[in-house]
Amino acid sequence: MKYARFAVIGAVVLLGLSAATCKAEESWSSLSSPDGTFRIEFSVGDKGKPLYRVRHGGDEVILPSGLGFFEAGGEDWTGGYVKAELGAAELHDGSWRPVWGERSLVRDHYRGAVVLFRRPGPLAGLRLEVRAYDSGVAFRYLVGARGEKKSINIESEKTEFCFTEDHKTWAVYSAQGKYSKVKLSELRSSVERPCVLETGAGKVIAIAEAALVDYARMRLRRSEDSPRTLVSRLHGPVSAALPLRTPWRVVMAADRAGKLLENNHLMLNLNEPNKIKDTSWIRPGKVIREVTLSTKGGMACVDFAVEHGLQFIEYDAGWYGDQGKMTSDARTVSRRGLDLQAVIEYANKKNIGVILYVNRRHLERDLDDLLPLYRKWGIAGLKFGFVQHGDQRWTRWMHEAIAKCAKYEIMVDVHDEYRMTGWERTYPNFMTAEGIGGDETRPPNEQALANLFNRMIAGPADHTFCYFNGYVDQTTSHAAQLAKMICFFSPWQFLFWYDQPSSAAGEPEFEFITALPTTWDELRVLHGKVGRYAVVARRKGDDWYIGCLNARKARTLDVSLDFLAAGKTYKAHTYYDDPGAGTRTKVGISRRAVDSKTVLSVPMSERGGVAIRISSGK
Fold first, then answer.
1. Closest C-alpha to 234, from 220, 222, 251
2. pTM of the prediction?
């Protein structure tokens, strides 16, 4: 296999395996990342079991773990092998620019190879494509055509992840569920991915899936044979034409939780490059949901968006009838008092896009009719509601639907239980997805901070912020809400989920919302502990935004601004919790000059937060 075809910008150099490594451990073949941070090794164990293990730094983070799968009909790919052969390693060092993202430039730097587990008999050997990055390792199964056999039916997959200890695990049993920190041995059922574990020594490990497009989703269950081993669990069988390349199985590790977030571009690098030639119509931005489903409400939302620097309004469920009934028709507007075409025309004149929610029932039945119609209407995007997810059929349907939307220049937000796996690189009209217990679930800050360090490894999340809703005063604070708008990345940021334009009463902190970007040039996580606190810094042009979020107990964190350009003075606008602010939201504002030598002292209450905008201008 030639890795040059994966290159975007850069060169490929052939590298041989280290003779010293082979001599020191003759039974294990080894592939190291470019700087040696990660090493993945392969061997054959008892009964010919194909094995791999992973090292990070000087630590073994994945002990010898099994590989393989079972075909329908009984063919077993999990044993009977006699040898593991690692092909010639190739170094890839390239970079690419996303249409939108958390970074303006993504480096794609890894060593790659193909591993062949040989066995006697008529069945082919087990082949894996492997990449070792400095941020993690990834592998996927390769199945070639076998004579007259042109397809394969996979019944189950048996990829194992054996850990050194009974690690504490951030378990969530549904994509929008609540996280709990439990031991591996205490997991109740299969858990979502990414799955983050914390070792006793302080290392953080994540198991993830990338490039899931036409395959069954992987979740992770505790092994029946070992309480400290997770095993892949597919959401149903897979039927595929040969040759087959499965989704990637990913192992990341770092000495701090924030590093996993900083390295989440690994998920993008494991996906194919952008397939949309003209991306000029793809537009990030901030969104208000129109909750009255009326013409008057839509016009008011458009005016609100213009006034406060938003780019979109969204009509949610109900504009075309009861989303739960097949008799409803998303090709028509059935809501009384709603002249949707008038709102769209008014919005487009003011450069505000209109997003429409459509339930999966009507997308599945009418998608080919809806897309040309919606293009004619002039909408900007669709939100897919309650998509069927997990099994191969509906995974394939959803990705094909997003590709169809691209042909009509329609952007997409997928809601409910689906989690991204990096395919937004390939089709960047796929703006965001839910798959998170966002603000509409009223999460306390400890849940938000669990989501931040787990779910956000996977990619953008539609967090459905509810800025003015009354629950904010019960579980968190409005300054913390501003901080979350920085911490949680989504190129479409739904900032006002339950709010109407009349909710706003001239709050001075709206200056922050107006200025806030939704895509970025750089990401740094300055402080972070899963479920406890985070300080996330993002750069857009010359300006920086810092979100500080806290839970459980009051604390003060020092935030060094040494990432600012040396010798230059900036202005820091700080938005903090202030009971004496004299507004309903109780957000105070302070301003001061800062430079690269400044260290800010940031105090936060046990459920508070602070948002900071550092501007190079006024």
1. 220
2. 0.94
